[in-house]
Design brief:
The chain is α+β, with helices and mostly antiparallel strands. 40% of the residues lie in helices and 24% in strands. β10 and β11 form a beta hairpin. The radius of gyration is 28 Å and the shape is globular.
Amino acid sequence: MIDAVETTWRRLSPRMLVIHPFQEVVRAAPALLGLLVAGSGSGGQGHLWSLAGVGLMVVLGMLRWFTTTYRITPEHVQVRRGLLTRKVLTVPRDRVRTVDVTSHVLHRVLGLARVEVGTGTSERRHEGRLKLDALSAAEAARLRVELLHRSPAAPAAASPTASTTMSPTASPAGPPTGSTPAAETELARMRPEWVRYGPFTMSGLVTVGVVAGFVSRLVSEGNVDIGSVGPVQETWRWFSGMSLPLEIATVVLVLVVFVSVASTLGYVLAFGNFRLTRHAEGTLHVTRGLLTTRATTIDERRLRGIEVSEPLLLRAVRGARLSAVTTGLRAAQGAQRGGSLLLPPAPRGDAVSVARLVLPRVPGAPSAPSASSASSASSASSVSEASPVTADLTAHGPAALRRRFTRAYGVHALVLAVLLALWWWAGLPSWTWLTAAALLPLTALLAADRYRSLGHALTSGYLVTRWGSLARRRVALECDGVIGWNVERSFFQRRARLATLTATTAAGKQGYQVRDVDLGEALRLATACTPGLLDPFLVEAEVPALSANSM
């Protein structure tokens, strides 16, 4: 463990002198290639310019080791860096929310790891992140334990039977460095059958873009006539001999196969060896990755809820992924790239089971106001003891249904009108507006699905809201984590007597909406979730006429 009082500034591992120059050269590769081309065109000295550029990048990479130091005190974590402009980043120990330990392939070969400390404020600015790249693997694990495993008390751990249910075929595995077998409970582990959900994540589309961009850049920089390549000519001649429908079907088939394979490969590389554990010190620990390993530790005291995400393709095969709603995580960067992921795409039943294990019980859950027995039975403010992950949700009524169809058909009609105008005056092919007209039933199905996704509830001290169709999301937000409310009403919402209620919080995306809900229900929901918070803005006789900007 780190000494109680540490005042000396320490350097990063000397082995980073191998990593940082390599990273700088890779980062500057396009510029170095440009120097090579420019030098060759101006006198044949392109290789000298490139060598000079590589040397400069190596020097800059080495300077990062000489100019970066850090220290851990009982009150602060400090990082000092910079040569001409010296910067000292100081983070109070009590502001530490998460600790990420990442090891890329080169890091693992050299026994190093990159440590990134997450706080509630530093994640919003790239230059404010407290990052140590790189430390020895043992030192990184020691820092993670010291910064987050401070409290001897632990929340109620999951039962052994629940853990066994989540990973019935898992073999016992050693805990992460810095912990002991008795100090952790396994909540979930990667299972081979989860790989079948990889093709439905569509992450391979990114690979398609990267490969296309790389090939285009290579052809452009090398002045290569790709059409003169023999295999390309033969393939194009074979492809050109097809009919138009067959050409379209071939392109779609090749794209689907490539994206599916790339998505599956990316899934295995990103989530291989996935493991979620709860430690007795009050933290959740996530480890994942084959080539690049990543370990994220989340302080459960900062956990404010969970999000179950079901994109359309993943929902079609009964899959879902689970993320944490907590302070100090990069939710804006995506659940898979940021540290909020608690379970990769997996069977929805497994996601629900893990979510129930992760969510703590909230003592003293707020009670909803009961103006009458009938309204209490139909109101989302009625509190039950059901789990927030599986509790039945209150539908949003016929007004919300009409609004979903009106918006869907309104947008579709506008697009169809534009295509008709272009066909009439600009000679656009007729198949464009005919296709748009044929897709009207699909628009109806989308509107109906968006309405079925709407719902909300208040149960066991959590506000639960669900929305979305292409990406359906269900969020359970702890009422104690709500710091304010926004009630918004557009012109069309006012005519339909609807409102969008937004619960603001310091965790996750900082705001979660209950969309197109009756205004009176929205106010009852907010009042029941945070008793007394809206009292200065509410007058009992004027509740139905409350302004849209009550907060």
